[in-house]
Amino acid sequence: MTLALPPKRTPAENVLATMRQARARDAKWREGKTWSLVYRAGDDVTELLKEAYTMFFSENGLNPTAFPSLKKFEAEVAAMTASLLGGDEETVGNMTSGGTESLLMAVKTARDWGRAVKSIAAPEMILPASAHPAFEKAAHYFSVKAIHIPVGPDFRADVAAAQDAITPNTVLMVGSAPSYPQGVVDPIVELARIAQEHDVLFHTDACVGGFMLPFARKLGYSVPDFDLSVPGVTSISVDLHKYAYAAKGASVILYKNGPLRRHQFFVHTDWAGGIYASPTMAGTKPGGPIAAAWAIMNYLGEEGYLDIAAIVMKTTVKLREGIDSIEGIKILGNPAMSVLSIGSDALNVYEIADELALRGWHLDRQQFPPSLHLTVTHAHAQVADQFLNDLRWATARAKRFSLNKLANSLKLGLVQLAAKLLPVNLMSKLTARSSSMTGIKGADLPQRSAAMYGMMASLPNRGDLNELVLDVLDNLTRLEE
Ligand SMILES: Cc1ncc(COP(=O)(O)O)c(C=O)c1O
Question: Which protein residue's CA is at the shortest distance from atom 5 of ligand 1?
C-alpha cells in the first residue's frame, strides 16, 4: 500500500471541498436516521463543543504541570462524574479516550491488584455473555483469562453461574448498566455482593448508562442500583461521548479509592528522556476532548441533562409502545433506559433492517438472538413517529420471507455473525470471499444483507468466520481500488 504525497501544495478550499464530497456516503445522523454511533443534543451543544475543543486543540495532557488548565478540567470532570455515580471523598478517577480504554484500565488494574495483593499469577475475570467486547480485548492484551457466564431469559447476567465461576484465581467480576445488546441492567447488587464475599474486585460498565440512568431515576423511572454506592462495586466506567453528549474521545474510569487506582498507573524511572509516568494507555493526550467535556458538563448542568433525559425517555416509551404494538416483532427483555433491541419469534429481523435501509434507516444487526439495535437519543424525538410507520411497513414486507423459507432456499444454519464488526457496505466484499468457502457463486450470491449474513453463517466452521473478519479489518486500512 503506497500513495505518494501530492508533489505540490493544494489550496485549503480544494482540500476541504474534497473532504466534504467524501462524506456523501456517510451515515445520515443529522436527520436522526442512525440508531448508533452518534449522540447529539442540539446545535447549541455542538457549537460549544467545537469552540471548547478547538480552544485546546494543540494542548497535550501528557504533562499536566505544563497545562494546569487541562489538569483542572480533568479533575473536575472526574469529580462531577463521581458525584453522579455514588462516589465519595475517597473516589478517584481519570479521563480516557473512550469506553474501551476505560475497560482496558479496569482489567489491567485488577490484574496488577491480584498480583500484588493476592499473589495471583494466572488471573481470571468473570464475564457475562452480554459484556462489551472491550473486556475480551483486555483479556487478550493483558493475559487475563475470560471466564464466560450466560445471561438468563431476561438477558441479565446469571448470578448463580457467576458464583460458580469463582476460583482462587479470580481477580475481577463484571456487570453492565446497561448492557449494549438489550439495554438491561445486570443484577449489580447481587453480583457485587458475591465479589465482596470472595474478596475480588467488581467493575460496573456504565459506559452507556452512566450519564442516563441517574437522570432517568430522578425523573421517576425505575432504575436498579448499579453505581459506586453499591457495596462491593470497586470501579465504574462512563463514557462522556455517549449520553453526556461530549465530543468523541472522552470517558471516565473511577475507582473506590486511591490505593486501588495505583495499580492502573505506569511509571518508568530509568529513561534517558527523564522520568516518565502516565496514568492511562495514552502517551500524548489530546486537550480537545478534555476541554469539550468540561465545557458541556458546565453548560448543561443537572438541569440541562434532566431536560434532555426527559425527552429521550419520553421518546423511548413511545418507541417501546409502538414496537410492541406491531404484530410479529417485540422488544427483547426489559430495557432500563433508552437502549433497545427488536427481536422476533417468527420473522427474520435482518430482512426488516434491509427494508428499513431502503427508507434510509441505519440499524445495527445483532446475534444470539437475531435482533436490531436502537440507541435512542435526543435526535430521535423528531423522527420517532416516522420510524414507527416505516417499521410497520418494513415488518409487513418482511412477513413475505419467513426465516425458514430463507434458510431452506440458501441451506443456512443459525445466523452467527459478529454483526457489529461488519457494516452492510462491507458485506459484499465478505460475500465474495465466503463464496469460495460455501460454493455459492455468481448470480446465486445473495444481494441483501439478511441473506448475506445467513450465507456467512453457513460457513463450515467458526475459524473460517474469524479469518474472514480478520480479512475485513486488514482491508479497512488499505487504499480503495
Ligand atoms: C456497555 C458498553 N461498554 C463499553 C463500550 C465501548 O465504548 P467505546 O466504543 O467508546 O470504546 C460500549 C460502546 O458502545 C458500550 O455500549
Answer: 99
